[in-house]
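[INFO] parsing input record for ABC transporter, ATP-binding protein
[DEBUG] input buffer:
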Amino acid sequence: MNDELVLETKNLKKSFGKFQALRNVNLQLHKGEVLGFIGPNGAGKSTTIRVILGLIKATGGSATVFGKDVWKDSVAIHKNLSYVPGDVYLWPNLTGGQTIDLLLHMSGQKHTARTDQLIKEFKLDTSKKNRTYSKGNRQKVALVAAFSTDVSLYIFDEPTSGLDPLNEVIFQQHVAELKKAGKSVLLSSHILSEVEKMCDTIAIIREGNVIEAGSLESMQHLTRNTVAVRTKKPLDELQKAEGVYQLKFNDSSKTTAEFSVDSDQIGNVMDLLSAKTIVQLKTTPPTLEDLFLRYYQSADDQKGGD
Ligand SMILES: Nc1ncnc2c1ncn2[C@@H]1O[C@H](COP(=O)(O)OP(=O)(O)O)[C@@H](O)[C@H]1O
Ligand SMILES: [Mg+2]
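[DEBUG] output buffer:
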């Protein structure tokens, strides 16, 4: 594992007038990693990215890319960075093909065989004018240019929001390729299933605060597995077992049960089940959706009083 930091924000803040869009954003992206930046609409993902790109100035904290200050050194940083915005705006009178070449030219790159390959994979008709393209096609134009650009850091803001599932898969494959080539990727999304597949680490943002960040494993640790079990002997003891929640017996003999269990108690619970002679067992790992829900619920619980 390479520990080289490619991107870092520390206690990043951004206010628009009285409105504080970013309160405390802490992100770390290492070389060769894909960081998923996850949060609902309005949480502050695009604002954070705009600060990182040097398009707007932070009102507090710090942000560095390649160890350089994002505001002061944006010119140097941009030579080694590729960005695809969430809503791609393109020159209306250029064709998709002209646009791809222009975007490449602007970042000092060339149209290569790889560019042609990408156009083919995304099934993009490059002869059409940008103004005739759907949102998804505009995104494809920007993605083709980005993926055929050879830089160290790629930033995608909600990249697949306009893509159909087939193109989403192509996108995911190319992100995996970048990662294999040792590139770093920041990927924002409000769709967790996108992230599960591609990211090494995720950071969850809510109302301008990064409320949790780390590896997927370290976060799933916090969530509960769902267990469905059938045993020979009754399972009454589960009622007082530590870390067991939402226990439901599906028969009067109490030998068929469903429940959720804290990850750190799963060993003890399995011992308990084994002692009752397991006939059938199914455990379902927590999805990020569950994890997300739990964060939101706990934040809402804390707010409860006001
Ligand atoms: N230029 C701006 N002026 C005022 N408010 C803004 C501006 N840009 C973003 N915001 C507000 O900041 C919050 C975060 O927005 P944004 O970063 O776009 O969220 P996300 O990308 O996570 O959906 C939202 O409440 C949005 O309305
Ligand atoms: Mg956004």
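[INFO] The CA atoms of residues 226 and 284 lie 5 Å apart.
[INFO] shutting down worker
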